[in-house]
Design brief:
This protein is mostly helical. It is about 25% helix and about 5% strand. It has a domain at about 25-130. The chain has a two-stranded antiparallel sheet with strand order 1-2.
């Protein structure tokens, strides 16, 4: 049975991403999905701990840069970017200073990611961040329940 509001049998259709000119999801939708996923994680998990921090900014991708969010580390980077402290001017990390980041700003959460910025954390390059004193890094890749998106292309 189809109700007047488009629902079938009283169920609400799943939320669809808002299309962007390139046919990619809107960054606000991606952040909402990251937050929804993080909110379901056990409280001792890093995604859940970062999620509890107040949001400071939306996701802001560099045009032409690509990212996927089907790994815990990239989800971590997205949440770090949305909640961390922006570093500016001459204090930004080397990767951000050379314009090689996925995000528009150099953002860190000092208590997470061993001090690496979100641009370095994404795709498991946190150990290369110039903010780090230790180069050891454990990176978890693999699917964690979120859809795969390639953004910024």
């Amino acid at each position: 049975m189809n109700n007047h509001d488009g629902n079938v049998n009283g169920t609400v259709p799943p939320t669809q991403p808002q299309p962007r000119p390139q046919g990619l999801p809107d960054p606000a939708y991606i952040l909402a999905e990251l937050e929804a996923f993080a909110s379901t994680q056990p409280p001792d998990r890093i995604l859940a701990r970062i999620y509890t921090l107040p949001r400071a900014r939306p996701l802001e991708f560099v045009p032409g840069k690509a990212a996927t969010f089907n790994s815990q580390i990239n989800q971590n980077a997205g949440l770090t970017y949305s909640r961390g402290r922006e570093i500016s001017g001459a204090d930004i990390c080397v990767k951000c200073a050379t314009g090689k980041g996925t995000y528009q700003k150099c953002v860190v959460l000092e208590e997470f990611n061993k001090g690496s910025c979100a641009n370095c954390v994404i795709n498991c390059y946190g150990n290369r961040c110039s903010f780090r004193t230790s180069r050891t890094y454990t990176c978890i890749l693999g699917g964690w329940g979120l859809r795969r998106w390639i953004v910024g292309r």
